[in-house]
Structure formats: C-alpha cells, structure tokens
Amino acid sequence: MTVPLLAAFLALRSTYYFIIRVLFCEPFFKAYCASYGRNLHTGVYFHWVRGRGKLIIGDNVVVDGKCSFFFAARFDPYPTLIIGDNTGIGHDCSFTIGKQISIGQNCKIAENVWIFDSPGHPADPVARLTGSPVASEEVKPVTVEDNVWIGKRAIIMPGVTIGQGSIVAGGAVVMVNVPPNTIVAGNPARQLRKLIEESSH
C-alpha cells in the first residue's frame, strides 16, 4: 500500500512542479530579459529582480532555485548582466549590477554565490556618515570568463576578472584577478595551484 501511494505522490508532485515552472516561473523570468536564447530554464520559484537594467542570457542556461538580481541605474542607464551559453546558476545566488557583470560560456556557479560590481556603500567614512552614494569609480565591472567553476558561498568583489578554466573554491572571497586555469581558495582568496601546467616552449 505504501509503495503505490508514494509513487502516486511523486507523480503528482512532479506534474505540479512542471506546471509551475513551465507556465509561471520561466515565462515571468523571460519577461525580465532583454534577450534570451534557446532552452532557458528556471526552478520552481520566482526569481527576485529589482531595478532597471539589461539581462542578456544565452542558449541552454539554467538559473535554478530562487536568485536575486539587483540593478542600480545610478551609475549607468542600463546596467547589464550577461550570462553565456551552457552556464548553470545555483539556488540563492545574488547579483548586484551597477555597470556590468559578464559571465562566460560553460560556467558552473554553485548556490549562495554573491557577485557584485558595486560595494553598496562608499569606502570613505565621511561619505558613509553623511549617507552619500557610492562614487562612480568604486563601481567596477566583473568578468567571469568561460568554463569557470565557482563553489558554494563564494564572493566575487567589484573589478575582478576570473580567468578561463579557473576554479573558485567554496567560501572564497575573491578581491583580485584570478589567472586562467588556476584554483583559488580562502579569505582573501589565494592561488593554490595551476590546473594546467604551462609549456616551457
């Protein structure tokens, strides 16, 4: 008796979540996009998109779970987030875009990753005290090149470029550029080793 009930429950649950995803979550998210490619998929939650900006998504992209996208038009009329082909974004990731964040093709971004090009508050203590906005020069675009793997709960700071093929370990706080084909870890993130040995020729 228990096995048939469980099978029926699982079938009903799968059908319910399929309907929610295909008829509600994915169309609502696509409506936010300036452009999107083939086979854009979401999970069964509505993503939180706030502010005015351009969301440009390539082919075969998955933005899973419930993610947050904050566009700050103070620094650019159309702050832009680009997500390349065949890239997967995990649950509960957060993106704050003041100018531009660019994520390449074939990237794997785990859950709870935070990527931002604007610090949110000015570094100058006097400016913070008076409630002044962030200076434009403190807003620095972020680039994640192709085939990068970013682990769970990593933080990518403004102005950082993560080179092609690299790995950012879970929990890492990346404050400076990461060379291609390199694994980094820690707070602040430091290079552990190269993933591909460079030729001596």
Walk me through what this model shows.
The structure is a single chain. By secondary structure, the protein is of the alpha/beta class. About 20% of the residues lie in helices and about 30% in strands. The chain contains two helices and 20 strands. The strands form three sheets. The chain has an eight-stranded mixed beta sheet. It has a six-stranded parallel beta sheet with strand order 1-4-7-10-13-16, with no helix packed on it. A six-stranded parallel beta sheet has the order 3-6-9-12-15-18, with no helix packed on it. A hairpin with a 4-residue loop joins strand 19 and strand 20. The longest helix has about 30 residues, at about 1-30. About 30% of the residues are buried.
Largest sheet composition = 8 strands, mixed
**Global structural class:** alpha/beta
Strand order of the largest sheet: 2-5-8-11-14-17-19-20
How much of the sequence lies in strands comes to 25-35%
Distance between the termini: 69 Å
**Helix fraction?**
10-25%
Unreliable residue runs: none
Beta-strand segment tally? 20
The average pLDDT score comes to: 92
What characteristic shape results from the CA principal axes? globular
Number of H/I helices: 2
Kindly provide the radius of gyration, computed on alpha-carbon positions and rounded to a whole number of angstroms.
19 Å
- One letter per element, helices H and strands E, the order comes to HEEEEEEEEEEEEHEEEEEEEE
